[in-house]
Specification:
Blueprint: H1 5-16, H2 24-42, H3 44-48, H4 55-64, E1 70-72, H5 73-80, H6 84-96, E2 100-104, E3 112-116, H7 118-138, H8 144-160
Helix pairs in contact: 1-2, 4-7, 5-6
């Protein structure tokens, strides 16, 4: 296996600061590089559909919630893991395109329900198929057992991190 840039960086730190253990960079540094590379590979279909960063996350959260494909702003915020302010901006963009609607919650007039329109369901269904095909393509260099092991290791690693601040 060829040495990657992260290995080279760790070797440089080993030479310059032998008193420090730079090996955590072999995991964390690679994860950061992978996130960036994956984002660049996965974003084009969303961009081609005219969706901004994070817009598909909102559409997908609504679609996978099941019929009637509607959630409150708070539920959407918790599902997509962003602030309600960020949700508002995304919903504004999606509503202006006719992909979602807002309605007053029946139980609380201050609350809003966000729901997919028929056009939103159709676009989301098209894009999720493309998105999953892209993910499969990007993982094709790993065998099924390796993907399973990697998924387990990432889940295990994520469980060791402190919870996100709200």
């Amino acid at each position: 296996m060829q040495t990657d840039a992260i290995s080279a960086i760790v070797e440089q730190w080993k030479r310059e600061r032998p008193d420090l253990d730079a090996t955590p960079m072999l995991v964390v540094g690679r994860l950061f590089r992978l996130v960036e590379a994956l984002d660049q590979q996965l974003r084009p279909p969303f961009r081609a559909a005219g969706l901004g960063s994070g817009d598909f996350d909102v559409l997908a959260a609504l679609r996978r919630s099941g019929e009637p494909y509607a959630l409150s702003a708070g539920e959407l915020s918790r599902t997509v893991l962003v602030t309600t302010g960020a949700i508002t901006k995304r919903v504004d963009r999606l509503a202006s395109r006719g992909l979602v609607t807002r309605s007053v919650a029946e139980t609380d007039s201050r609350g809003r329900h966000i729901a997919l329109t028929a056009e939103g369901v159709e676009l989301t269904d098209e894009l999720i198929a493309v998105h999953l095909d892209n993910q499969r393509r990007l993982l094709s260099g790993l065998g099924a057992d390796e993907r399973t092991r990697l998924a387990h290791l990432l889940e295990q690693f994520a469980s060791t991190l402190p919870p996100e601040a709200e």
